C-alpha cells in the first residue's frame, strides 16, 4: 500500500587489493543533476569483497521511479577506476487503490 517505505539494496564490490574502512554510498531519486537525495550510508568493504548496501526509499505514488546509487560521491577514496561508481535502476510500484463495485450490494431506495 502507498505511501510506503521500500528498501533498495545494491551490491558494492571492491575489486582492489586494499580494504576500505568506510566509504559513502548515496541514493538519489532520479539523476543527481536534477533529482533529490534520498539517503546516504557509510560502509566498510574488504579487499576483493562485495557487501550489500541497503537504503530505505519512501514511495508515495505508483509507477516507475528511477533511482541512482553513487559510491564515493566526494571522491575521497583513491581508486584505479572512478568511472564505475554510479548505477541507475527503475523501481516500479503498483497502485495501492483497488476500487470494486459489488452487485450484491446494489439496492433500490424509494
How would a textbook summarize the main sheet? 4 strands, antiparallel
Strand content: over 45%
Mean pLDDT: 92
Distance between the termini: 38 Å
Biggest sheet: strand arrangement? 3-2-5-6
Low-confidence stretches: none
Count of β-strands: 6
Shape: elongated
CA-atom Rg in angstroms: 21 Å
Q: Strands, helices and their partners?
A:
Layout: E1 4-13, E2 20-29, E3 36-45, E4 50-59, E5 63-71, E6 86-93
Antiparallel strand pairs: 1-4, 2-3, 2-5, 5-6
Can you describe what's shown?
The protein starts with a strand and ends in a 17-residue tail after the last strand. Strands 3-2-5-6 form a 4-stranded antiparallel sheet, with no helix packed on it. A two-stranded antiparallel sheet has the order 1-4. The chain has 110 residues and is mainly β. The chain contains no helices and 6 strands. The chain is elongated, with a radius of gyration of 21 Å. β2 and β3 form a beta hairpin.
What keywords describe this structure?
single chain; 110 residues; mainly beta; four-stranded antiparallel β-sheet; two-stranded antiparallel sheet; 6 strands; elongated
Write a brief structural summary.
With 110 residues, this protein is mainly β. The protein is built from no helices and 6 strands. The model has no long low-confidence stretch (mean pLDDT 92).
Amino acid at each position: 500500500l502507498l505511501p510506503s517505505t521500500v528498501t533498495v539494496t545494491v551490491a558494492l564490490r571492491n575489486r582492489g587489493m586494499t580494504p576500505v574502512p568506510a566509504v559513502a554510498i548515496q541514493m538519489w531519486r532520479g539523476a543527481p543533476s536534477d533529482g533529490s537525495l534520498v539517503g546516504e550510508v557509510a560502509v566498510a568493504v574488504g579487499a576483493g569483497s562485495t557487501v550489500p548496501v541497503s537504503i530505505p526509499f519512501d514511495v508515495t505514488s505508483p509507477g516507475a521511479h528511477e533511482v541512482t546509487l553513487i559510491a564515493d560521491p566526494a571522491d575521497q577514496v583513491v581508486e584505479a577506476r572512478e568511472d564505475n561508481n554510479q548505477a541507475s535502476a527503475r523501481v516500479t510500484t503498483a497502485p495501492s487503490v483497488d476500487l470494486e463495485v459489488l452487485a450484491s450490494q446494489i439496492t433500490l431506495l424509494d
